[in-house]
Amino acid sequence: MDEQELAGTEAAVREILISAGLQWILDDVDEALGAGIWTDKPIVVRHQSRQTPTGEEKFDFYEPATPGVKGKLQNITTNIPYTRLQRMDLLISALQRAVIELPAIQEDTLKNLNLEGGAEEEGHLMRADTVSFLPEEGVTASPSPPPLSDILSREATLRRDSMVNVLAALLEEITR
Amino acid sequence: MSVSTLLAELRTNLLAGAVSYTSSSAANDVYEGFLFSLVVATARDCRATVEHRTVDDNPTTNLVFRTSPGRIYSRAQEYTHAHIKFGPNVPALEAHIGVLVKGASGVEHECDVLVLDGLEADASRKSTVSPRASKCILAVECKYYLSRLPLGAARGFAGLKRDLAKPKLIFASNNTSNNVNKYLNNHSFTTEFSAVPGSREVDYLRTHIREAFKTHVSRYDPSFGI
To answer: Do B66 and A127 make contact, defined as CB atoms within 8 angstroms?
Structure first.
């Protein structure tokens, strides 16, 4: 895909997410996009001085460490913007986490809370039938996670499987 | 398949609810629940007896956790905690999600997952005060992000460490970031990134949790092997 196609695809995915009430996914991605990609950049440190009305003032300035430039090398950390392709990759990866990772975490939580003792030397764990999240009364309710039964329903599982395939195919298309 | 077809399928799936989580806070709640379950499972594996109890100390199999920071003595909902007992000679512990703890400065801080002395927890509930950090053995800061882990999350944790000196503090995240990793490890904080089900980082996390239990148990009953 060229830059224009990538930009168009990103805009389309964003619009779909907003329509589906998933602005929070975009907020998460946008925070990462705003921070940029942190990278170490080699520079050459130069020492200079100049005369001022109050006397001699010493200062340092930096030059890019290009081939042939001599001097004391130092690494500085800077950030660079994401490319169009990296932006799409970030967006699709975020969606993959929301679709695959979160339900897996929820499912694993209930498994951990219901481990059955096998070995004699292990302790005893009281079972947990349900796990729910509720706001304190009087506190503006933030949306709670869905119940595990919803996550594990056949319909939800089929939708997730379909999403996994769509996202994988989209990732393949954008890198063509 | 063409991109337009894929986008149409994406729209159909998402509008039908393929992503069941409607906010970043809901996602973080799920992750806190996961870390809580690791604490509980590790306690069981270390030969503890673990019971889930309500704020009135009644056993229950229906776990209820907070969606925002709250007080250990709150009766707003039937919030539950895990009661953890390592043998008859070791004082009981409790594991909670999202309770406020009083730091060395006197300021209260939310601990995403907290393990504290059972007597302190009990006294705090009876006196309707927050427990003291000096009576806590473990606090886990849980950070769930879909994209990249921001540096601000690490800076917040560093601040927490200054005021909660006593408990073992662990920074756990599903995600990673070179900057966050560099910053926290430069200051010798205990961290585990990419800690999700099936990852080796979860095993490492459980080792850290076990170390906190070991320190507590060995103070009272060195013969109790965990």
So the answer is: no
Token readout for A58 is 């010493």
CB contact under 8 A, A28 and B29: no
Of B181, B146, B143, nearest in space to A32 by CA: B146
Q: How close A78 comes to chain B (CA, Å)? A: 11
Q: Nearest CA to CA, how far is B7 from chain A (Å)? A: 7
Query: In terms of DSSP bridges, do strands A124-125 and B49-54 run parallel, antiparallel, or are they unpaired?
Result: parallel
Burial A63-98 (b: 16+ CB within 10 A, else e): eebeeeeeeeeeeeeeeeebebeebbebbbbbbbbb
Question: Is there a contact between B9 and A131 if contact means CB atoms under 8 Å apart?
Answer: no
Using CA atoms, how far apart are residues A27 and B150, in angstroms rounded to an integer?
13
Instruction: Yes or no: say if B167 and B209 are a contact pair by the CB < 8 Å rule.
Output: no
Chosen for mutation from B146, B177, B186 (greatest number of chain A CBs closer than 10 Å) is B146
B78-126: per-residue pLDDT in tens? 999 999 999 999 999 999 999 999 999 999 999 999 999 999 999 999 9
Interface touch A169/B6, C-beta < 8 Å? yes
Query: What are the backbone dihedrals phi and psi of residue A55, each rounded to the nearest 5 degrees, phi first?
Result: 135, -165
Q: Is the dihedral angle over the CA atoms A40, A43, A47, A49 positive or is it negative?
A: negative
ipTM: 0.94
Residue B22 and residue A138: Cβ atoms within 8 Å? Answer: no
Residue B206's SS3 state is helix
**CA separation, residue A134 to residues A36, B26, B94 (Å):** 35, 11, 20
CA B166 to chain A, closest CA, distance in angstroms equals 27
How close is the nearest chain B Cα to the Cα of A61, in Å?
25
Query: Are the beta carbons of B41 and A143 separated by less than 8 Å?
Result: no
Q: What SS3 string covers B102-125? A: ECCCCCEEEEEEEEEEHHHHHHHH
Bridge-partner residues for B125, per DSSP?
Answer: none
Prediction pTM value: 0.91
